[in-house]
Design goal:
mainly beta; single chain; 46% strand; three-stranded antiparallel sheet
């Protein structure tokens, strides 16, 4: 998880070649205390976590590789 200067959370994943890709879950809020919080990745590369929307409601997500 990357936390920017506004305390907005973003997810990231690092590829085997070292390339880092950031991501935000669809619907994630863009204000203080909101955003995307990845919690784990499985052997197939599926990332799971939660995001907080603009109404400060938390939602779970699964991010499939390539999406």
């Amino acid at each position: 998880m990357i936390n920017d200067f506004r305390d907005l959370n973003h997810g990231f994943v690092r590829a085997r070649d070292g390339t880092v890709t950031t991501f935000d879950a669809p619907g994630a809020g863009a204000a203080f205390g909101e955003g995307t919080v990845p919690l784990g990745i499985d052997p197939a590369g599926v990332i799971m976590g939660y995001y907080t929307d603009a109404k400060r409601v938390n939602h779970g997500f699964l991010l499939q590789p390539g999406h």
